[in-house]
Amino acid sequence: MNRNTAKSIRNNLTADCAKCFGLCCTALNIVQSSDFPMSKPANTPCVNLKSDYRCNIHSQLRDKGYKGCTVFDCLGAGQVVSQVTFNNVSWRENPEARDQMFRVFPIMEQIHEMIAYAAEALSYDLPIALTDTLSKKLAELQKVTAWSASKLLAFDLVTYRFSLNGLLTEASDSIRETAIAELPGAKKLKDLDRSRVNWMGKKLNGKDLRAVDFRGALLIAANMQNTDLRAASFIGADLRDADFSGANLSTSMFLTQMQMNSAKGDAKTVLPFYIQRPSHWIRVGSGRSR
């Protein structure tokens, strides 16, 4: 697969709520917290979900305490389940399929996440053998999205994620090694390994963090203003309330829209090509992040 095709696949993994039956508003369990003002059990419609599957308070979600709703992103899984898996027949129109639809949604969400990671990796210049193997994995995952609900419910996500994670680690190491070669001083991969580090609230503003591996790191509320994070890997990192105002994330790897939605930033934050700037980052007329 060529890099432009991979970029296109990654770039097109976006939610289209108009083609979804409000699955994130029904299938998921919600616990009252700083992100939600109320609790809701899984497989139960939110009180704000209208009959046409739109949100009754969409423009006021943050003001009314539904911060979590503005963070969540399904990478387009919702419309695929609605339009492909269940042939545009909603859980209201077909109550017998309701439970199955709600169970398939989080599975499809994880499949789309794997597709996103694989496609992004293939958008870089990788060794030929690794490119071929990742391309095959990506093609397999794309076919899985067209499976029936019963096949999807039987899909072994754990085993598949494990095998893909190994390939993504190889890709990350290859990309980071190339970037490290351009850094001052003789550095190796292990010198920039911060995987699973606990840097909650850490002050890192203005640091050169190029090619750092933040896999699974806890960066909650970290100050990363004006940091250089090119070629850094963020797969599985917790970025809630981390401040990336003015940071350069242009070639940061394996970021998701949900991670960025949960973080802070501003108009000067440089994002990867597939990430949309969260609308809640900027206060109208102030130019400051929220």
Give a written overview of the molecule:
The protein has 8 helices and no strands. It is mainly alpha-helical. The chain folds into 2 domains: 3-28 and 72-177, no CATH class; 187-290, E3 ubiquitin-protein ligase SopA (Pectate Lyase C-like). Helix 3 (77-85) packs across helix 4 and helix 4 (98-122) runs antiparallel to helix 5. The longest helix is centred in the middle third of the chain and has 25 residues, at 98-122.
Comma- or semicolon-separated keywords:
290 residues; 0% strand; mainly alpha; Pectate Lyase C-like; disordered C terminus
* End-to-end Cα distance: 40 Å
Sequence of secondary-structure elements: HHHHHHHH
Domain count: the total is: 2
- As a whole number of angstroms, the C-alpha radius of gyration is 20 Å
Number of helices: 8
Shape, please? globular
- Low-confidence runs (pLDDT<50, min 5 residues)? 284-290
Secondary structure category: mainly alpha
Q: Tell me what portion of residues adopts beta-strand conformation.
A: under 5%
Mean pLDDT comes to 94
Largest beta-sheet details:
none
Q: Helix amount, in percent?
A: 25-40%
Q: Tell how many strands the DSSP assignment holds.
A: 0
